[in-house]
Write a structure and sequence with these properties.
297 residues, alpha/beta, Molybdenum Cofactor Biosythetic Enzyme, Chain A, Molybdopterin biosynthesis moeA protein, domain 3, six-stranded mixed beta sheet, 5 helices, rod-shaped
Length: 297
């Protein structure tokens, strides 16, 4: 590599912009995944609601479905007397039609029957056989969760690139979505570089250190929908590093390395990247972390 590598350091924000710019050209395929197996994936296309949520006007309380106009003058001292014509249970479709002077017992979450435009809570009612006294005035759609109040049909509920969290899965399930288009897992190669590295405590007796960076990175990556290939520890020899990089690049879209990226005599990482492709930047104005490189091969 020509010139002094760290003669001109770039700022961290510039480094991130260069990484994002170059990663944006990577073509990632799409696949459909069953919604119950989609946790953690990234949405490949906007998801649009095909139904309203809730799909109907429903009661927010236990009580009686009523016509609000029948209760315009209702109070504790002047209750409105309504005839009970039936009951609407949660999980059932109401078959009754409410007329003036009538009420229907209703469960929380049950659909509002035709003719009703409000619900009065059970605590504001007195039961009198086949009748109910409503002791409180209610306004139109009081104690009612309106159709489409949470999500309207045609609304974009998840945008392309969004990561699917547990609450997103629940939302999609509620909208009747069985499968979702997501980006396929990216192949990521992990390579540790350094003569001093080992996988167990025996390396300490030889003056080396245990490779904890790879363990850290491996577990970070396991939180994402990626396919990780561990290339183990590569010695500080240019030909070994070049061979590992070539194999990794042939089977993966990203390569993450630790070690050998500074400016020492046995730091070959950036040199190998340059020999196989292009070094986008080498050296970032941060501490710790100045010997950071990013490139393409």
């Amino acid at each position: 590599m020509s010139g002094k590598i760290f003669k001109s350091l770039i700022r961290a924000c510039e480094a991130w912009k260069l990484i994002e710019k170059n990663l944006s050209i990577i073509k990632i395929s799409k696949q459909n995944v069953e919604i119950d197996k989609a946790l953690g994936y990234f949405i490949a296309d906007d998801v649009t609601a095909e139904i309203d949520l809730p799909p109907f006007d429903k009661s927010a309380v236990d009580g009686f479905a009523v016509r609000s106009e029948d209760l315009t003058s209702a109070s504790l001292y002047n209750p409105a007397l309504l005839r009970i014509i039936g009951e609407v249970k949660i999980g059932s479709k109401p078959e009754i039609v409410l007329k003036s002077g009538e009420a229907a017992r209703i469960d929380t979450g049950a659909p509002l029957p035709v003719g009703a435009d409000a619900v009065i809570g059970i605590e504001d009612c007195n039961l009198l056989g086949e009748y109910v006294e409503a002791t409180k005035r209610v306004t139109p759609y009081a104690n009612v969760v309106r159709k489409g109040e949470d999500v309207k049909k045609g609304e974009v509920v998840l945008k392309k690139g969004s990561r699917l969290h547990p609450w997103d899965i629940a939302l999609l399930k509620g909208l009747g979505v069985d499968a979702v288009s997501v980006f396929s897992p990216v192949g990521v190669a992990l390579i540790s570089i350094g003569n001093e590295l080992g996988d167990d405590i025996s390396i300490l007796e030889k003056g080396g250190i245990i490779d904890t960076n790879k363990t850290h990175l491996l577990n970070l990556l396991r939180q994402y929908p990626v396919n990780v290939e561990d290339f183990g520890i590569v010695k500080d020899l240019k030909e070994y590093i070049e061979e590992a990089f070539s194999k990794a690049a042939s089977r993966n879209q990203l390569i993450i390395t630790t070690g050998g990226v500074s400016v020492g005599l046995r730091d070959y990482t950036a040199k190998v990247v340059e020999s196989l492709g292009e070094v986008v930047f080498h050296g970032v104005a941060i501490r710790p972390g100045m010997p950071v490189a990013f490139g393409k091969i």
